[in-house]
């Protein structure tokens, strides 16, 4: 709670700084620093409330922090009050505006000093926490206390209670859900407040013989607020697992270890074999000696690898010897495979060689184009062939040069050194001889031909030679002949010279011809030699590829042998390990190993084990006392959602939200409170010995006292059991009377001796489980008297006024504070801390609620501890709490008026509540003026039902007032509220309904933060200004003129609830066409036509959020129109009231089409016809139907109409002849009220003197029928 108080103080300071920024000029820095200090200390307050009862140091520290937060809030509010109002009396009030800054200076100084004092206190608290080691987190002491509390509260299914009051209806509901066989796992929930008997009901079902026979296994787990997931899962597994299940789980867990061991064995084998293989390879290279093999496995591997090596070598030799052997003559598959692989290699090499030779030829012709990138092997072959070619070229050129040099110099030729050189020498000599012979032959032939010609033609020798030379291929002889002097005198001299020259030219020609022939021969030799070398290189390349393939084949054979050896060795060791494991399983003791397994496995494996066991069974698991949704999120994974058909989880909880969260499709069972008779039966069983009960041996006065006392228990079984245990020690009626006089005190005494088992202690667990922000909302209920019906709207408005709800705290800031307040109230209801009295017209929202008496007592106790709220029954009581609730005590037999007084003033008080059930209270004479001088920091003032003389003008000084409740307040000497209420600038709610004397002045437009204005129509001015109330959400009542004035209807766009009365239809028509309607935010609308009829209802079709509609006045019907006015009603309506509508057509034909209508009330003169018909499928959601003061003679309900009707109310239908025939088909009807009907009609549906009326058969199925006739 202290965390919430500090949070509210921070929020209050932040809100004040924003809204009153100008007022804080001069102390703004100090205020913001104070806010920062409070935020820092808030961070240390998590879980502080639950620790303060376990550590006195924490309790005192929290009290100091709470007082500091309150003081900080008081300083800010007091400063704002003084800055706004200044001195209240004397001349200073007249000149306040002129001297405002001068007056404000001392306030600023005083406020700054107070803030520094608060900061010093915060520092002191922080120092104390460090000095004394105070921590708000759970320590050893708090943990031990929680563990003790958990142990004492633990439930055990075998601990059956003898004194159990049978709750047949609840037992049937639970049993029917448990025994239902459904495909999926379902969750059955028992919900209710603490001490209601949820655990007892679950225990009864758990031990029921039929239930036990229905399920294969059962488990009971106590959860509580301090539960251990592992302990719960272990407990479930121990209970649901059979001996075979335990054996299977242990076996499965051991098998996992076996798999780990087998995996380790495989790794070891792999390592050993790899190591031995490496050794073998090393032996092949270094010829390792045999005695270096150490183990049998190593030797075995060595022998197998040697055998593989020899087998491959033999195959290769056989293939070499039988080179042309056909494939079908090969003896083994390996030989065939090797032969195929070698042939493939040879073909690949041939293909590559052909390609490379072709490429080289093309390159030599310079015509090659690279079409693709060569492979690695092709590149290698190409390089080797090019190398051969270069070597041949170099060698031949070298030999050629040597030979030519020797021939030119006439050197003696040495013997050639190589075969290639010898071959080249021989081939050159042969060429030379052939050329010499050819030239000699040609020359001889030439000479012979010359001589012959000379003889025949008698030519000179010179001409003969010339002719023959012309036939020679060389032209140079002709040139020589032309140069010789042809004179006869010189012929003889030059003949010899010509022959010499000619011979020289012949020799030259011979030499050139030889050289040419030599070159040709050299080139031919080169080519042949290259081809020879190429072929040798190719054969060598082929051989290398074959050897590589053979080695690769050997390696494959080796690796296969190694893998085979590995597999055999692994299999051998695995079999050995499995045999050892099977032997261990046969000899093992399951139970110790099972529990050892539970301690060893992780939480995830534990969930998996529970899941595996439950999946094969129809199970029932009870989870007793669940507090958080997160608990179900953790445990649900252990329960198979689709296991054996009909499996169930039964949980008990105080929070309905948990039940819905666990299974949205289930219907939680909430045990009812005990009746007075059941409560007395339970009390007597606890208070008296069995022999006295059997013989009814107790006096009647004990029963009278006991029945009075159980009323205080409110039917709560826990309280009755505690009270019975207390009375069991009281032996006399006088002692029983002492207990009866003050039962609460007796419960408190019981709490002191039974710390963890008392009524309030059990109920307080729910309070401590609340999130910090929700605790103030719960404690606020302590102000209401016992059995008080609390109206939701009024409660939420006061929450807002107190500052519990603010727009800044709402997520995103878009949601209305009222909506968030409804969510918080629903959460308290779901936690079974607040009980719903009545639902609203939607069937889902809360209309009124209340608290169980004992829950309220606990709430009052906690509120007092926190100085949150105090209750006074007498004016002399001194209350130091921040809020005061006055519950006057009067004698119930007195009919006189009683005087009360306003409580003694205290500047720290923030709220005054007066709860007067009857208006028999007057203020004391000296307090009737309601002096507010000393309580000007009030935020909530509720004077409900109080009689006073007048409301003083000083009420306008309560600038912090946010809620002013004057409903039913009687003011004897005043006709109107003072105009000073216009100064209440912080006011959120103004409620002056049902007040016959006070009128509302035209000053409400000044209340710019007003959200709810509730006033009677006759007490508000017709032209009241409202255009400034932009935050207004509720306006009941007002005149259209007020909305039209200053265009207010275009500015009040936040209205949700509107009640308006009009005299002229033009006014209401303007309002209905305004943004108030067209925006679609209205939820509730009440329109009263006083002296006129309604205009068209078409604007209502835009109200998409409208849930409640009341129309009182004539609704026009135009027969020529295509649409009836009722057809414009929005489909979202839940509640509809029509009065004085003067409708001639049957309204049911239009209204039955509204799909969401749940409540229909047709009042006096709403329908002027004589027959009403609810047709088939009409009113699909209608639950309540009220018909009053109508002239209907026949009411017809067809079969299939109103399928959800629960209450039928017929009042003053004097013309109605009989109950509708179709009512007997409405099986949902639970209540029939017939009020002020004719006696003849009433007799038809009654049983008089054992004789059933004529129409009783139609209503026989209705549980509750009440009838009254006209006088």
Summarize the structure.
The protein has 1271 residues and is an alpha/beta fold.
Which secondary structure elements does this structure contain, and how are they paired or packed?
Blueprint: H1 2-19, H2 28-42, H3 48-52, H4 56-85, H5 100-131, H6 140-153, H7 168-179, E1 186-191, H8 198-206, H9 209-214, E2 217-222, H10 229-240, H11 243-286, H12 296-321, H13 333-364, H14 376-409, H15 419-457, H16 461-471, H17 476-483, H18 488-587, H19 590-600, H20 603-615, E3 619-626, H21 629-635, E4 648-653, H22 656-662, H23 676-687, H24 690-695, H25 700-713, H26 717-727, H27 733-741, H28 743-753, H29 759-769, H30 775-779, E5 790-791, H31 792-802, H32 817-830, E6 835-839, E7 846-850, H33 853-865, E8 870-872, E9 883-886, E10 898-900, E11 911-914, E12 921-923, E13 940-942, E14 947-948, E15 963-965, E16 970-971, E17 989-992, E18 1012-1015, E19 1034-1038, H34 1040-1044, E20 1057-1062, H35 1065-1072, H36 1075-1078, E21 1084-1089, E22 1108-1112, E23 1135-1139, H37 1148-1151, E24 1159-1162, E25 1171-1174, E26 1184-1188, E27 1194-1197, E28 1207-1211, E29 1231-1237, H38 1239-1244, E30 1247-1248, E31 1251-1252, H39 1256-1259, E32 1264-1269
Parallel strand pairs: 1-4, 2-3, 3-4, 8-9, 9-11, 10-12, 11-13, 13-15, 14-16, 15-17, 17-18, 18-19, 19-20, 20-21, 21-22, 22-23, 23-24, 24-26, 25-27, 26-28, 28-29, 29-32
Antiparallel strand pairs: 5-7, 6-7, 30-31
Helix pairs in contact: 1-2, 1-4, 2-4, 2-5, 4-5, 7-8, 10-20, 11-12, 11-18, 11-19, 12-18, 13-14, 13-18, 14-15, 14-18, 15-16, 15-18, 17-18, 23-25, 23-26, 25-27, 29-33, 31-32
